[in-house]
Every structure is written in structure tokens, then in C-alpha cells.
Design a protein that fits this description.
Layout: H1 3-26, H2 29-53, H3 59-78, H4 85-102, H5 112-141
Helix pairs in contact: 1-3, 1-4, 2-3, 3-4, 3-5, 4-5
Amino acid sequence: MTAATTRSIRLFAAALAVGMVALLTLAPRSIVSPARGQFMRLMDASLAPLVDAIPYGDAERVLNVLMFVPLGATIALLLHRRAWPLAVVAGFGLSAAVEYAQASIPGRVPDLDDVFWNTLGAVVGVAAVTVPRIAGAIVTRIPHRAGR
């Protein structure tokens, strides 16, 4: 696969992640409620003990974190390994913009706590990409000796 193809796939994935965040956070509640309800039922039925074990954990916060993990990961993949903080800033910026926009959407309620949990999701996504990239760079620098 060429570098241009890889970059195109990464751009498409990042655009898809942004689009999904926009759909889930800016669409009227009547459109999003069925999917949100399914997620909440799944959390209650199967992951409640795990969510309860997380400090300050509840299904709403987990949803906010999970929604931004793909965004943080795809943006980090678009950037140079050392520029990963920009992906966190992008996650924070998009979350703050969403919360600001929600103030003008009927049925939506902006919440500063959501900005924190969304940004944490971006951090998790960035870490999921950045930690292996850094580890790979370190491993490639270690001299390999024959006969060991």
C-alpha cells in the first residue's frame, strides 16, 4: 500500500469519526434517542459491574468517552508521532464546539462535564495509537545481534 493510499484511508476514517460525533451530538434527540437507549440498556445489562468499578463511572460518561476514542485515534494517525498532543487539542476543540452548538438545538442540553469526558475519550484514542508507535520506534532503534 502506498503512503498516499494510507493517508487517504486515514483521512476517510477521521472524517467518518467526525461525522459520527456530529450526528450523535448535534442531531435532534428524537433521531439519536433509539441508539442511545440501546447503548444504555447494553451497559446496564452486561457492563454494569465494570462501569461501577470505574471512579465516577456511569453509562453516560462511558458513552461520552467511547464516542471520542475513534476521533482521537484517527487524528493521531494523521499526525507525525511527536505531534500527538494536537489530536487531544482537536478532540477538546470539537467537544467544546459541540456543547456550544447544542445550546441552540431544541431538546439538547450543553454540559461542560461532557467536554471533559469527550476529551478523555480523545486521549484514550491517541494513547491507543501513540503508545504502540513509540514502542515500535524504540524497538527499531535497538541493535539486533545475530546469534542471540
